[in-house]
Specification:
Layout (H helix, E strand, L loop, with lengths): L2 H12 L39 H5 L1 E5 L13 H4 L4 H4 L13 H10 L4 E7 L25 H12 L3 E6 L27 H17 L6 E5 L8 H10 L4 E2 L18 H5 L8 E5 L16 H12 L4 E6 L9 H17 L7 E3 L8 E6 L2 E6 L8 E2 L9 E4 L4 E2 L1 E5 L11 E5 L11 E6 L19 E2 L1
Helix pairs in contact: 5-11, 7-8
Length: 470
């Protein structure tokens, strides 16, 4: 079925009464990310002490939304948002033949982008399965492709020792036992269905068992859309038994291992000084869709880089998503974005490795800080207002100051500025930064001191307000 035919069908169906109760799309509204309270100081989030600790080392991963919706190329929720009847949507399976899918090329791009693990949709809300499942015929093996896409990716990941995580949607628009009731991210009740939550959960558990048993070592399970908000800790317990290295997110049947702030929806998570629990933020390069969209609008490099920096600098993980085409190719513009981000991340990556997040040492608008021993990394996360920044209350010159983005020395001074006349205190300033030349990225300054960091903010008297430069 061609895209124009699918959209014509969507327009016709949208006018029928069966769709009048569809809810407005919304993001996941389940477990909330645990942010630090104003009086709490950031501390390192405790390790698991088992095989899941890989998650603390890898930090930055690739998210992939791929499925039948990649063929019309509009949105991963095409069936729901486009109001497409199920019997029309499932015809897309007859076109599923991604002959250009090469998992090695995906992983090459992932590594060039500085990413360390990959998470892929095994089954999105439409119910189409990318693996050789025995629980439903609505899967990749019953298409012209006739190949197990998850198996191919898993084999490539194992060869290259890249952690593989699996996304699975609890909401299902195809399985007849799922109780579609027209709630958010659900179809209205379907007359041909036999809603039975117990039977659906039995189906789901068997699919999870397949995914955790047939593809070697799995490093994560990424639940989505527990619309009924059903609790059942036995499901995650089964995953842990079958795959002890797998980290599990908080969108499933219990609180899992980590929170999942999405895009820029969770303003509290975006602006918090830190987190009290493990977090993996997620974002897509495309502004409209997580799946492939033919005429997508893309975020700027700076928007994405700032988002990545904002979370990595606060001791969390980050997934950045791309949506491959129906042929299995990652779009050129999306790939180019990942590569540009990868170049930036390679230059500044040391500021995220074996560091502590720090929201107490300096007070500077739009800046985040990480630290290691006698070194501070100052991340200019928000767009700088000018080409200099004052790092209150620091008033000791660093022994060495380097802009990681360029490798060049930073012009530094400790002096009294007119705006600080009331307190008569000089402060460390970073000057003549290339904020105009590098205005589409995030600058990271490395400041190395020859004294402990608790001694870089010393009380000054009016007699010491002379300029010290380096």
């Amino acid at each position: 079925m061609k895209r124009r035919d699918l959209l014509k069908s969507a327009a016709a169906i949208a006018a029928t009464p069966i769709f009048t109760n569809w809810a407005q799309a919304s993001y996941f509204s389940g477990e909330k990310t645990q942010v630090l309270k104003p009086d709490q100081k950031p501390t390192a989030i405790p390790r698991f002490g088992d095989g899941r600790d890989w998650f603390f080392e890898r930090r930055y991963g690739m998210f992939v939304h791929w499925g039948l919706y990649s063929i019309p190329g509009w949105h991963e929720q095409h069936q729901w948002r486009g109001r497409v009847a199920r019997d029309e949507y499932v015809k897309l399976a007859k076109q599923w033949n991604p002959t250009k899918f090469n998992p090695e090329q995906w992983l090459d791009l992932m590594e060039e982008a500085g990413m360390k693990y990959i998470t892929i949709t095994t089954k999105h809300h439409d119910g189409f399965c990318l693996w050789d499942t025995k629980q439903t015929s609505f899967n990749t093996m019953n298409t012209p492709y006739k190949k197990d896409a998850i198996g191919l990716l898993a084999d490539a990941c194992h060869r290259r020792k890249i952690p593989l995580c699996l996304y699975y949607s609890i909401a299902d628009w195809n399985q007849p036992n799922y109780p579609n009731q027209g709630r958010h991210h659900e179809l209205p009740a379907q007359p041909q269905d036999s809603p039975d939550w117990d039977k659906y959960m039995a189906f789901l558990k068997e699919q999870v068992r397949e995914l955790c048993s047939n593809y070697g070592e799995i490093h994560g399970f990424w639940w989505d859309m527990n619309v009924p908000e059903h609790k059942d800790p036995s499901v995650n317990a089964m995953i842990r038994k079958l795959q002890p290295k797998a980290v599990i997110n908080n969108r499933g049947f219990d609180s899992g291992d980590f929170g999942t702030p999405e895009r820029d929806y969770d303003s509290a998570a975006a602006e918090a000084k830190g987190f009290s629990t493990l977090v993996e933020a997620c974002q897509s390069v495309g502004m409209e869709s997580w799946g492939y969209k033919k005429d997508e609008d893309f975020y700027t490099d700076r928007h994405l880089i700032a988002s990545i920096d904002r979370y990595l600098a606060r001791d969390t993980n980050y997934l950045l998503n791309v949506g491959p085409t129906g042929e299995g190719l990652i779009p050129e513009e999306a790939a180019a974005i990942l590569k540009r981000i990868g170049k930036w991340k390679k230059l500044v990556d040391e500021s995220y490795q074996q560091v502590q997040t720090d929201s107490e040492t300096i007070s500077a608008p739009g800046a985040l800080v990480t630290k290691r021993e006698n070194t501070l990394y100052v991340h200019l996360n928000k767009v700088p207002a000018g080409n200099g920044i004052k790092l209150k209350p620091v008033n000791v010159l660093p022994a060495k100051a380097t802009l990681l983005n360029t490798g060049k020395s930073i012009d530094c001074a400790v002096n009294l500025c007119p705006s600080d006349h009331a307190e008569q205190q000089p402060y460390l300033r970073l000057r003549n930064l290339p904020t105009n030349e590098l205005n589409n990225t995030v600058l990271v300054a490395k400041l190395e001191f020859d004294c402990p960091l608790d001694q870089i903010s010393l009380k000054k008297t009016t007699e010491t307000n002379i300029e010290l430069t380096k």
